[in-house]
Amino acid sequence: MVDPWAGSYYLESLTDALMQKAWRLISEVEAHGGMTKAIEIGLPKLRIEEAAARRQAQIDSGEEVIVGVNKYRPEVEDTLNTREIDNRAVRESQIRRLNEVKNSRNQTVVNEALQALTETAETGKGNLLECSVKAARARATLGEISMAMEKVFGRYQAVSQIISGVYAQVSQGDPDFQKAQDMANEFAKREGRPPRILVAKAGQDGHDRGAKVIATAFADIGFDVDVGPLFATPAEVARNAVENDVHVVGISTLAAAHKTLIPEVVAELKKQGRGDIRVIVGGVIPQHDYEFLYRAGAAAVFGPGTNIPRCGQKVLAILMGEEPADGTTKKATSETIDELFHEAMRSYEKALKSGIQLQEESVNLWKDLLTGLGSAEELQAKLESMTADAFPQARKRVEEFVETFNRTSNQTIDLFEKTLAGHQATSVTDAQRRVQDLIESSLTALRVNVHSTLNTNAKIIASWKELVDRFGPAVK
Ligand code: B12
Predict the structure, then answer these.
(1) What span, in angstroms and rounded, lies between the C-alpha atoms of 181 and 183?
(2) Sheet containing 196-200: order of strands
C-alpha cells in the first residue's frame, strides 16, 4: 500500500493538533475526577453544546457552506412524501398490549422479582443485571424494572446550562444577527423587560441539540431564556411557561409527535389562563404539516436549516405585533410578493413543460413505429419490440409525469396562495378574489387538459395493444 501523504508536514501537523485538542478534553475530564464525575456536573454535554452552537453560528453566517441548506438552495422545494402515523392509535395499541402482558403473567412471581431488584439496589449485594433479567423473564415491563431501581437511586436529571457568548462570538458582523439584537433591544424598550422565551421539549423526544442551540443563540440575541427539562408533558410545559411569565414558548420537536403535542400545549396554556403566550415550533417537521400547526395555534414553524438570526427577527416581529401569528406574512413587501408570484409562475411552467415533453415523447414513439413499417414480418418484429420495451417504458414515463405534475401543481397552488396572502394585506380585496378565481380556473383547465391527454394516451395504447394482440404475440 502506498500512502502519498506519509511524512507530510501538513498531515503530521493536523494529527498533532487533533491530539492536542483531544488531550485537552481528556485532561479536563481527569481534573474533575474522571468521566462519571464529569457527567454528573454536565461537562461533556456542555462541551458538545458549545461546539454545536459555534457550528450553527458558522452555518448561519455563511462561514461554513452546506450546499442546499445555506447556499445553492433549490428554487422550488420538492414535496416529500412522509409516512403518517396516528400517534393516538399507536398509544392505544401499546396500552392494550401492555395490559395483555400484565393480565397473562403470574403477578406474584413478578412482584417477587421486582422486590428482589429493589433490595439489591438498596443493599448493593447481588447483581442488578441478573435481577433485571429475572424480572424480564417473569414478564415485568421495562417501566416496572426501572421503577424498581428508581425507588432507590432516583431518576437522572440532565444538568441544563445555557452557554452564553459562543454564538455571538462567531456572529459578530453578521447584519442579520445585528438586526435581531436591535429588535430585541427595541422590544425591551417598549415592554420594560427583554423578550422572554421558554425553550421546551415535550413527549418522548430526546433530541435536545436544536433546543440548546436555539437557547444559546436566542440568549445572545437578547432574549431571557428558560430551558425546560426533557420529556415534559404539555401540561408541565404550560405550567413552566406560566410560572416564568414568558412571552413565547418554543417547542423543539424532532420525533414526529408535533401534531399531537402542539395542540395540547396550546390547549393547556389556555386552560391555565395564559392563552396570550405565543407558541412557536421548531425541528424536523414536514412542510405539509405547517398548515395543521398554524391552525392548531402555532404562531410560526421553523424547520431544519433554520437561520437563527432571521428566525429571531421573525419571532420578535410577531411579539411586537408586526407580523400576524398564523403563518401568513402581513408585512410582505411588493418585491417579496412579486418574487413569490414569479416563483409560482416558474413552477406552473414546469408542470406544463413536463406535460408537453411527455406528448412529444409519445409522438416520437409513434413516428418511430410508422417510419419502420415495411413487410408484415418487420411490422410484427416492431410490434413485439414495442410490447417488450417501449410500452412499459411509456407507462413508466406517464407515471413519472403524473408525479411531477401533481408535485409542481401543488407547489404552484401553495405559492399562489402565499402570493394572495401577501396581497390580501396590501391591496383591494375584490381584485384578489378575481385573481384567485382566475388562478383556480386556469389550474382546473390545466388539470382537465392533462386528464384528457392521459385518457387519449390510454386509448391509443389500448388500440395498439389490440392490434398487437391480433397480429403479434399475446401482450403480457
Ligand atoms: C443527532 C441526532 C440524534 C442524536 C440526538 C443527540 C441529541 N442530544 O440531540 C441521537 C443519536 C441520540 C438520536 C437518537 C434518535 N433519533 Co435522531 N437524529 C439526529 C439527527 C442526525 C440530527 C439532529 C440534530 O441535532 N440536528 C442539529 C440541530 C441544530 O438541528 P435541528 O434540531 O433541526 O434544529 C434546527 C431547526 O430545526 C430549528 N429548531 C429546532 N428546534 C427549534 C426550537 C425553536 C423554538 C425554534 C425557533 C427553532 C428550532 O432551528 C435549528 C437551527 O437551524 C437527525 C437527522 C437530521 N438531519 O435532522 C436525526 C433524527 C431526528 N432522528 C431520528 C430518529 C428516528 C431517532 C431515534 C428514534 C432512532 C432510534 N430508533 O433509536 C432516536 C430517538 C431518541 C429519543 N429518545 O428521542 C429521525 C426522526 C424521524 C421523524 N421525525 O420522523 C431523524 C429525523 C433521522 C431520520 N431521518 O430518520 N438522534
Answers:
(1) 5
(2) 224-227, 196-200, 248-252, 278-282, 300-302
Distance, in Å, from the CA atom of 203 to the CA atom of 261, rounded to the nearest integer, reads 7
- Does residue 211 have its Cβ closer than 6 Å to ligand 1? yes
Ligand 1 pocket residue status of 256, Cβ below 6 Å: yes
Among 196, 207, 220, 259, say which to mutate for ligand 1: greatest number of ligand atoms within 8 Å of CB: 207
**Beta carbons within 10 angstroms of residue 203's beta carbon:** 21
Give yes or no for residue 306 CB within 6 A of ligand 1: yes
Closest listed residue to residue 262, CA positions, set 202, 218, 313: 202
What span, in angstroms and rounded, lies between the C-alpha atoms of 461 and 115? 73
Please identify, by atom number, the ligand 1 atom nearest to the C-alpha of residue 306: 53
CB atoms within 10 A of CB 47: 15
Sign of the Cα pseudo-torsion (224, 230, 231, 236, in order): negative
| Global model pTM greater than 0.90 | no
User: C-alpha cell of 435?
Assistant: 385573481
Cell of 308: 437563527
- Residue 391: which of 368, 424, 415 has the closest Cα? 368
Distance 355 CA to ligand 1 centre (A): 38
Give 202's strand partners: 232
User: Quick check: 436 and 417 in contact, CB under 8 A?
Assistant: no
The residue whose C-alpha atom lies closest to atom 13 belonging to ligand 1 is 207
Cα 189 to Cα 192, 193, 315: the distances in Å are: 5, 7, 17
Please, is 370 exposed, middle or buried when counting C-beta atoms within 10 Å of its C-beta (0-12, 13-18, 19+)?
exposed
Task: Report DSSP state, residue 248.
Answer: E
Cell of 287: 412542510
Most confident of 189-198, 356-365, 384-393, 434-443: 189-198
The answer to whether 138 and 113 are in contact (CB under 8 A) is yes
User: Over the stretch 8-56, which tens digit does the pLDDT of each residue have?
Assistant: 999 999 999 999 999 999 999 999 999 999 988 889 999 999 999 999 9
> How many CB atoms lie under 10 A from the CB of residue 390?
18
Q: How do residues 149-171 score in pLDDT, each as one tens digit?
A: 999 999 887 777 788 899 999 99
Sign of CA dihedral 457, 458, 459, 462: positive
Among protein residues, the one with the nearest Cα to ligand 1's atom 89 is: 284
Q: How far is the CA of 141 from the centre of ligand 1 (A)?
A: 27
